[in-house]
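User: For my dataset I need records formatted as: sequence, then structure tokens, nothing else. Please produce one.
Assistant:
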Amino acid sequence: QVQLVESGGGLVQAGGSLRLSCATSGGTFSSYVMGWFRQAPGKEREFVAVINWSGGKTYYADSVKGRFTISRDFAENTVYLQMNSLKPEDTAVYYCAAQADIVDYGDQEEYDYWGQGTQVTVSS
């Protein structure tokens, strides 16, 4: 069973950047599709980005496309979310998720493993 620990959240001004990390343990990192989701206050948790097993394919929500980049480091068993040009509407708790077999990468119900979340706050 894989464990996920996010880090890298914080307070940043609009237009700034942050890099989130999700360290994994207890599983075979290369066996998992890795996703990032976020939940803003009063809203449902939503899909942000996903990267496939090999790292060769990535998909993004339209709201972050061109600003966020997901990547994975097989030596460190870690997945990253580089967030640039941040906006106040990006404020949320960001969660890392993992799943071995997946059909709909944007459906949070398909992910069995979740981290505890890291808070990102973007001030205007």
